[in-house]
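Q: what sequence does this backbone want?
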């Protein structure tokens, strides 16, 4: 029953979308002949409704269950109160600071190694 409803929703959405595109195309082709502006408005409405039904049909088919609990990795500790969140945040800030300091030291070493390699190349020439 559900698949039939989804198929109907998708099929009706596709048909309405195509009718809207055809309506807009006939308006554009007949602009010089004085075609009605209502044809453009009807086409836009049909395209909008058709696209909406297509999206609704596509989203309904593969519903994801977001209520399932997410498994926590081993390095994360569960946070129960405000104090736990504060201590976890402080721990993350200190780890981030150490990581940035190490990255800066490695960058300095890389720059000095490149400078020494560049100096040796110039002295040999």
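A:
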């Amino acid at each position: 029953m559900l698949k039939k409803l989804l198929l109907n929703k998708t099929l009706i959405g596709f048909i309405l979308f195509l009718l809207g595109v055809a309506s807009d195309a006939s308006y554009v082709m007949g602009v010089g002949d004085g075609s009605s502006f209502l044809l453009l408005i009807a086409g836009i409405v049909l395209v909008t409704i058709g696209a909406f039904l297509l999206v609704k049909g596509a989203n309904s088919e593969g519903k994801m269950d977001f209520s399932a609990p997410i498994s926590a990795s081993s390095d994360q500790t569960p946070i129960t109160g405000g104090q736990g969140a504060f201590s976890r945040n402080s721990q993350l800030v200190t780890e981030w600071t150490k990581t940035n300091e190490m990255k800066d030291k490695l960058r300095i070493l890389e720059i000095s190694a490149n400078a020494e390699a560049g100096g040796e190349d110039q002295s040999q020439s």
